[in-house]
Amino acid sequence: MPMDGLTIGFAARELNEALAGGRIDKITQPEKDTLIILIRAGSENKRLLLCASPNNARCHLTVQNYPNPLEPPMFCMLMRKQLLGGRVQSVRQIGGDRIVYVDIDVVDEMGDHVLRRLILEVMGRHSNLILVDGEDRILEAARHVNMEMSRVRQIQPGLTYLPPPAQDKLDPEKVTTENLLDKLRAQGDQPLHKALGASVSGLSNPSARELAFRVLQPGEDRAEDLHQAAARLAELIRRLPEMKSPQVLLNDTGDAEDVFAFPYLSRDIGCQHGCGTISQALERYFGARDQQDRINQKSASMVRMLKGQIERCEKKLALQEEELASAARMEEFRLMGELINANLWQLKKGMTQVELQNFYDENGGTVTVVLDNQLTPVQNAQRYFKKYQKARSARETAAEQKEKTIAELDYLESCLLDVGKCVGESELEEIRQELVRTGYMKRNTNRRQQRALPQSKPYHYRSKDGIDILVGKNAAQNDRLTTSAKPNETWLHAKDMPGSHVIIRHDQSVSGPVPPDTLKEAAILAAWYSKGQRSSMVPIDYTLRRYVKKPGGAAPGMVIYVNQHTLYMTVSESDVRGITLVEE
After folding, report:
1. 146, 374, 496, 502: which is deepest, by most CB within 10 A?
2. What is the reported pTM?
3. 531 contacts 413 by C-beta, under 8 angstroms
4. Tens digit of pLDDT for each residue in 412-452?
5. CA distance 348 to 336
């Protein structure tokens, strides 16, 4: 757990050292639960990120750029009114818990110096960002909590701020051998790390395990001499601030799995990557994770809509195929009507069926004709001819409608596939705009929810031969990517299925044929970023860009092409990770 009380303590000390005395020059709010505060401190501009996201709450310095709404939210405007021009007095952790106070000295309208305090509570889904005045009166909060939501603690403007209920645990700054020994004894006979986590505030299970590991003998989980263990733990906790050496724990694929404020001897040291500051470590861990969580949240309604529309099209397609199957009997209906007309002389009203010679059969076979005993022979013939006409019309209509339904289904599946490729809001917004244009979604008219987003960029890979490979993430990108490619660059796409356009930046008229390894890597990417991602032997067509055309009036990303060759690819995630990703 990266943001436990232990890590927050290191982060707060680092922020206090970097920001104390700094002037607040700018405040933005990229998300409803996130503030970015630009602070001029030590002749540098530093950007403080305070985030109360349920899954990724944190505080650290950041160098990332975050897109903002076209109009600032009310919470942001109040923060600007209350804090701009103020001086940061201190950043501190409270009681070793997951609570951070940012105290700010502000000059009010009367010219008096007053205290404003930003409080970040890192409490999972109850995380919050709260502004209070010098008398602990709540001025505003990112999340309001009323009586119906909590009878214990309300967060509303005008109320007095009350901190979360205190746990019966020791403040790390006040730990001594004696009080820690008492707490550990009270936990009974259980592993030392569990007893420690239940005794000292702010220790997650991994943190408690690491501290216990450092004072126990190898292979032990309980202390034979509890007094000695308590003494060593108390001394270790006292020295923690001096041990600062931020580490990011990497998994087998190179992704950040955890953040440690100092090297953890209980974990594989070879998998721990050192960072200059705790802020850098937290940004590496949370950056992509938070962004992907935001994308998943913002795309959830779009994904539900697309899946619902796909299900509708699949049901519609099944009905149309059923109609076509029924229409296959139309020649049978015509034959029955003609046989009845040819044999009117031997038929009478009231008959239910009759065996008639089929004059179309060269062998002189017979056909059993079912009759309606309530109708005359002529009426029975007319009934079969009506069925024939209806079946013929249904075949023509159903065939036409089936073609449209298949095209719509391909489009919707392509959009759903594109949503899964999004790594930023720009790509998601382009898909949203396309769905608005095609009538599947309504246009967003709330300017405070709209964002000034830069044009999205395709995936940029580089082959082992040093050649750039670009992969479109959505239909709009596919269009831009293909139309901007040079005529003799190579274009790839999964055959007869939704997928990304892939361009190999290698002009064959200048540099000769594409190296086989580069072509294979591009085909791997074309297969992975297609509907056939998890399939085997995915057909990948490739041709020169000059042979790819966009029909007039075609939807974004739709093209036709000729002179193609085909590769058959079975790929895995490890194949894709083996190709150098230059930029997402």
Report:
1. 502
2. 0.73
3. yes
4. 988 898 888 887 778 888 888 888 888 888 887 665 556 66
5. 16
